[in-house]
Amino acid sequence: MTGEEMERAIEFLLKNQAAFDARLAELDARFEAERELTNQQIRELAVNQQSTQENLANLTQVVAQNSRQISQLSNVMMSVVEGQQSHKDDIDALIKLVGGLIEGRGNGKSGS
């Protein structure tokens, strides 16, 4: 190999090395940009996850409060139903009593 051929080979290698270094630098820059974007997305996801957890905790409290209120309402309704049944029983007894009195008077019996 002559000196001129050796120079051209070295020049060729240097140009290829420079092109490779440029591509590598470009890839490194793109990788760094993508990494920063990924890190930003991870930070946003962490903030969103925290917000979601807070919303879920609030919702859990609301559901628990609603459950307590429903339970209280059920107890009140049961009391009302029991009261109505008691009143119904009292009214039925009164109807029987009045019916007996009326029947007794109708048969010529005196209520006095």
Distinctive features:
single chain; 112 residues; mainly alpha; 1 helix; rod-shaped
Strand content: under 5%
Quickly give the structural class. Answer: mainly alpha
Largest beta-sheet characterization: none
Q: In whole angstroms, how far apart are the ends?
A: 150 Å
Low-confidence segments, given as residue ranges, are none
Q: Please give the number of β-strands.
A: 0
Question: Judging from the principal axes of the Cα atoms, what is the shape?
Answer: rod-shaped
> What is the overall pLDDT average?
93
Describe the structure.
This protein is mainly α and 112 residues long. The chain is 93% helix and 0% strand. The protein has one helix and no strands. The protein has one helix at 3-106. The longest helix has 104 residues, at 3-106. The protein is rod-shaped, with a radius of gyration of 47 Å. The mean pLDDT is 93.
Question: Mind sketching the topology for me?
Answer:
Blueprint: H1 3-106
Summarize the structure.
The protein is mainly alpha-helical and 112 residues long. It is built from one helix and no strands. The model has no long low-confidence stretch (mean pLDDT 93).
